[in-house]
Design goal:
Elements: E1 2-13, E2 23-38, E3 45-59, E4 67-82, E5 85-102, E6 109-128, E7 132-147, E8 150-165, E9 171-184, H1 189-198, H2 205-208, E10 215-231, E11 234-246, E12 257-271, E13 275-289, E14 296-309, E15 316-328, E16 336-351, E17 356-371, E18 375-389, E19 392-403, H3 407-413, E20 433-447, E21 450-463, E22 466-482, E23 485-498, E24 504-514
Antiparallel strand pairs: 1-2, 2-3, 3-4, 4-5, 5-6, 6-7, 7-8, 8-9, 9-10, 10-11, 11-12, 12-13, 13-14, 14-15, 15-16, 16-17, 17-18, 18-19, 19-20, 20-21, 21-22, 22-23, 23-24
Length: about 525
Amino acid sequence: KVFYDNIQREDVYYGALTQISGYRAINHNRNAGVNWEWRKTRWPQLLFEWQNTDITSQPNVAELPATRSGNNSSNLTIKDNRLGWDLSGYLRKYDSTSEFSYGAPGAFQSATFDQHNSQAEATAFRQLGSSGIVNLNAGNYVMRTSGAGFRFNQDLRFLQGSINSGAGRRVEAGLRGAYNSNIFGRPFSEMTALLSAVGVSNASPSQLAPAFLNYNMGNVNWGGDLRYRVVRGLSAYTSVSQGAALDPPNAAGVQVMDYVTTSAGAHFEHRYSWAQINADFHGTRGITSTPNQPNSRLSGYGYSGGLQSGDVDRLEFSASYNDNRQRSELSNLSAYASTSRWANFTIGRRVPLLGMTFRLGGGVNDSHIETHSASYLNKGYSVNANLSHARFQAGYSRLDGEGNTLPMLVAGLTGGPAAGALVPLLPRPLPYSRRRGTTFTGCATPFSRLQARFLYVYFDQQLDHKSMNAFKQIDAAVGYKFRRLTFELGYSSWDQSILGIPNYVRERLYVRVTRPFNLLSR
């Protein structure tokens, strides 16, 4: 399959972009690609994909410089079966360059944002007997990002393997081992110091870009798992893990940490005539050791539960809850306590008289970390609703989250015993932040040849009670099919405000005619 698009259009930008309004720009989009698949008996299956995109924009306002962006991506996937092994792997490469301008009239500046990513991963899978499985996995990810006065490099290498036996039997056992090497940074710590010095409204986009210092966090671990089915629906399990968080010479502030952890728990799952119920409880104990310091004791527990009842023809209901807690009992720089909780639900009902199906869902989350000198909090909720009919569909979703840290920090510290080594690297709590978003979608087909669609998106991100990025998008279109032609009349708009700059609004009213073609056929 070979494809090529070459589209040039003139757009009018209304609103205000630092007091420039109603200007025109010629936008030229070029897109080309190749998809090629090779299948031969007794030979590996190959899939090759390549795509190149180039976009140029030339405003008719002298103060606004021309910008250009483009990306080039390629992917090679290989699958094979040799000597009872299922083998698969892929090679991916992605390069992109984007130009943008910022500043004020008479003092606009151009900046270039470059990104170069490459990925390689291989997997080997084999069945051992009737209930044994061997799984091997290795990969290497490289990411290089630069532009607007900052640079971020990340390298991830991993090698992991596992052997499991007894699947579906009364006793199940497994062995596992893994090595991981990953760049770890101090996310947003430099930005936080900058904001306290210059203030949000006075910081430039390049200053507000996340600054990362490189820390290579290596981790080696191995362990075993055992599960015993006590009675039907009830099982007990235990696991043992041993490993080390490695400290290369350039990771000042990160300590070498050896750890041993054990965990045990019980899992219950049963289907009754009225509902299916599952529940789980587990506890964890461990010891970590660092040079020239007393051992640190780790403790934690977690429990979860879920219920699913009914069917959509009458009333379908499902709900789940999860609570995990960890604590380091040694009062030093690596001491911490973390809690992560979330809950969600869904309700569905079909109304045959109206020919409609209603679905409603939502969830809440609450995570926080307590260290020797600071507290980190992140919480929020989400709501979604859907309505479907043979002739139309509609959806609504809303999310709202707030806190004084980033979700990735909370997730990182609730993930295992090596988290204590990361505590000294945490920045002081960030200023209060909030994220709100609303999405509404609609699609209708009143007649077989007529179709209409609508999209509304609103998002607002605040930092220290000041808006950092707020945008609103509207997209509506009506299409009519006549034989093999499709005539579409549409309207789209984009209203965005970044870093307190006055709104940047783009609107477009368009007419599109499309027709499918078969260039190559057998």
